[in-house]
Amino acid sequence: MMRYLITLQAPDRKGLVEQIANLISRHNGNWLDSEMRHIEGFFAAILQIEVPAEHIDDLIEGLECIEGLSFTHAKAQKVSEPDHTLRYQLVANDRPGIVLQISNQLNSIGINIEKFSSQFESASHTGIPLFKANFGISSAKALDEEQIEQALYTLGDDVLLDKLS
Predict the structure, then answer these.
(1) Is residue 81 scored above 90 in pLDDT?
(2) Measuring CA to CA, how many Å separate 143 from each of 91, 110, 124, 139?
(3) Beta bridge partners of 46
(4) Residue 143 has what pLDDT?
(5) Which of 40, 73, 78, 139 has the most beta carbons within 10 angstroms of its beta carbon?
(6) The whole model's pTM is what?
């Protein structure tokens, strides 16, 4: 079995995930990991699958036949898990460039972003636009939680940060 990373995008419609799952199953594939979202009428997904090498071409051909679906695929390798990981939730007033600011701060202290999910929403009582992010970070060396928090709090007085694990 070979591992593949597949990214998918299509106008959202009922049954699309089932259609993709059926295709993977018909080619003796195993759905390992995924992130899927519905955003502004579109379905977007990242899948990690295992498929026998002799079936990948047929699977790709099947994906090409799904109406409106665009995708990329790449052979993947199993990578060892990082030694040190943490998860955080950050909430701040929304502003252009906030993801760049977060990534700059983490990169400046040698931290890798492993997983990042963000949402835009309005504060319930004030209607102020808010940016919310859940993210996982890692490093080969022990993580200095105080240094991480200090780096993220430099983004502004409006930043709320919770360590999730």
Answers:
(1) no
(2) 21, 10, 34, 7
(3) 7, 35
(4) 87
(5) 139
(6) 0.83
